[in-house]
Amino acid sequence: MLTAIVLIDTEADQIPEVATKVTDLKGVSEVYSVTGKADLVAMVRVREHEELADVIADGISKIPGVVRTETLIAFRTYSHVDLEQAFALGLDD
């Protein structure tokens, strides 16, 4: 599974509409409205590298109101939640 974090700049008055359309794309698991340099952050999870182009270049970038995107490809995942769930398998609380 490949994970990409996509920073999305939008037209100021289009943030909710863009977020809704991005969320509807296959491969997008979450979209966050954030403060900082970007207006939205999308989490993209796909099986094949080529699918990133389908979701990002052919999907997100072509949504009306999207001004610019920046994509960060994840190398590894570090998460206490994932580790705790893995070690808790089969254990009763």
From TrEMBL:
* UniProt xrefs under InterPro entries: Dimeric_a/b-barrel, Tscrpt_reg_AsnC/Lrp_C
Mind telling me which Pfam families this protein's record contains? AsnC_trans_reg
List, in alphabetical order, the Gene Ontology terms for molecular function in this entry: sequence-specific DNA binding
Q: Which residues form the Transcription regulator AsnC/Lrp ligand binding domain?
A: 6-77
Which biological process, per GO, is one annotated for this protein? Answer: response to amino acid
Signal peptide location in the record? none
Q: Name one GO cellular component term.
A: cytosol
Q: Which Gene3D superfamilies match?
A: 3.30.70.920
Give the top-rank taxon of the lineage listed in the UniProt record for this protein.
Bacteria
Q: Identify this protein by name.
A: AsnC family protein
| Source organism | Krasilnikoviella flava
Q: What is the lineage of its organism?
A: Bacteria, Bacillati, Actinomycetota, Actinomycetes, Micrococcales
